[in-house]
Design brief:
This protein folds into two domains: about 150 residues, NAD(P)-binding Rossmann-like Domain (Rossmann fold, 3-Layer(aba) Sandwich), CATH 3.40.50; about 160 residues, Dihydrodipicolinate Reductase, domain 2 (2-Layer Sandwich). The protein has about 350 residues and is of the alpha/beta class. The protein has a seven-stranded mixed beta sheet. Strands 3-2-1-4-5-6 form a six-stranded parallel beta sheet, sandwiched between helices. The chain has a two-stranded antiparallel sheet with strand order 13-14. It is about 35% helix and about 25% strand. Strand 11 and strand 12 form a beta hairpin. Helix 4 packs parallel to helix 5, helix 5 runs antiparallel to helix 11 and helix 7 runs antiparallel to helix 11. Bound molecules: 1,4-dihydronicotinamide adenine dinucleotide and (2R,3S,4s,5R,6S)-2,3,4,5,6-pentahydroxycyclohexanone. 1,4-dihydronicotinamide adenine dinucleotide binds next to helix 1.
Length: about 350
């Protein structure tokens, strides 16, 4: 391994360009070795001002570029399976943005491919596991002071959805974060999903079922509800309240600045995830670089990515049918047994 881990970044859009900046200027121990995006101008713009970073229009060309020792996948979800399998074929450690692969069949192919290798190479970009408030909540729940968790009430609001965002993507893309956070916080699998929807907001694009109310059941008998509203228009709001047998705990209210002027006070609300979860992304990528340099893999695994996709798939079916839908989860390969 070189002194600085050489990373190929696949996808130079919203997240990819931010990860390129992060690898170049924020985290230690890594450097951007190559960037790939079919949009050549986007790739070039992402590395503007950086010395000697080759850009490519083909992902595989970036994986094979000199000095590449690890991969960060930030292309759209549909491109992740091919990229993950190409990284595995080269033995390259990967940090892959969520969703790992939309759809459980493709996600399972990734799990099976990694299990065949017999060692973990992939970490999935569920960055809430690195957010200070989520970590605080996790250690409170694990400590047991509040007793057993009975319910999680979650809110996930975006100011506006990007072009092409579909009703299924509210569950597959947005709620995938709550799916992973709930599995991680509770240490339980989610077993069934029901999706209710109020009248769509007039602020949502024509035809988009937004907002939605998603209810998960867990194997331990807890309930997790999520209000997901991706065109709320007013702010990026992510909250989670855990209701336990002996108390409750809520996170998600701390990310504000209170501005007082001219006899009044106003709380500022973050407008997107790059602001709200900036520290979490930084910690996630730093932890990935550090672990990779030690030859280890930490964070959400390919199995966690698969489980999130399987639960989301049941959620999309529940949205389409209006019927409570059981989650169909494959058996977990021994590679992913808790250590
Ligand atoms: N962790 C988080 O909070 C967030 C994660 N994401 C995830 O990040 C990924 C990218 O999302 P955005 O940056 O918002 O999308 P985007 O649309 O802004 O950027 C995607 C880029 O990938 C490029 N691309 C398309 N096919 C490609 C391929 N085969 N190889 C390499 N590049 C390819 C596109 O030309 C585009 O520049 C998605 O998986 C998304 O779900 C997105 C937003 C927040
Ligand atoms: O992952 C993300 C986006 O892909 C998704 O579209 C948003 O709803 C989430 O808030 C964001 O964190």
């Amino acid at each position: 391994m070189s002194e600085l881990l050489g990373v190929a970044v696949l996808g130079a859009g919203h997240m990819g360009a931010d990860h390129v900046r992060r690898l170049d200027r924020v985290v230690s121990g890594a450097r951007v070795a190559a960037v790939a995006d079919p949009d050549a101008e986007r790739a070039k713009a992402a590395v503007a001002g950086m010395d000697g970073v080759a850009t490519h229009t083909e992902a595989e060309a970036a994986l094979d570029a000199p000095g590449v020792e690890a991969v960060l996948i930030a292309s759209p979800g549909e491109a992740h399976e091919e990229a993950l399998l190409a990284a595995f074929a080269r033995g390259l450690p990967v940090l892959c943005e969520k969703p790992m692969v939309p759809g459980s069949a493709g996600a399972l192919r990734v799990v099976e491919a990694e299990a065949r290798l017999g060692r973990r190479l992939a970490q999935i970009g569920f960055m809430r596991r690195y957010d200070a408030e989520y970590r605080q909540l996790k250690s409170l729940l694990d400590g047991g002071r509040l007793g057993r968790p009975l319910m999680l009430h979650c809110t996930h609001r975006n100011v506006a959805s990007p072009p092409g965002f579909t009703s299924a993507m509210l569950v597959e893309s947005s709620v995938s974060h709550e799916i992973d956070a709930a599995r991680w916080l509770l240490g339980q699998e989610l077993t069934a999903v029901t999706v209710l929807r109020p009248r769509p907001s007039a602020g949502a694009p024509e035809g988009l079922l937004d907002p939605q109310f998603v209810l998960f059941e867990t194997e331990g008998g807890a309930l997790v509800d999520v209000e997901v509203f991706v065109n709320c228009g007013f702010g990026y709001e992510v909250r989670c309240e855990a209701v336990c047998e002996a108390g409750s705990a809520r996170i998600g209210d701390a990310h504000t600045m209170v501005v007082t002027e001219a006899g009044g006070s106003r709380e500022e609300v973050p407008q997107d995830y790059l602001v709200r979860f900036a520290d979490a992304y930084d910690r996630e990528v730093q932890a990935w670089v550090d672990a990779t340099r030690r030859g280890r893999v930490t964070g959400a695994s390919a199995w966690d990515g698969y489980a999130a996709s399987a639960v989301a798939e049941a959620g999309v079916r529940a949205l389409e049918t209006g019927v409570r839908t059981a989650v169909d989860l494959a058996g977990r390969p021994a590679l992913y047994d808790p250590s």
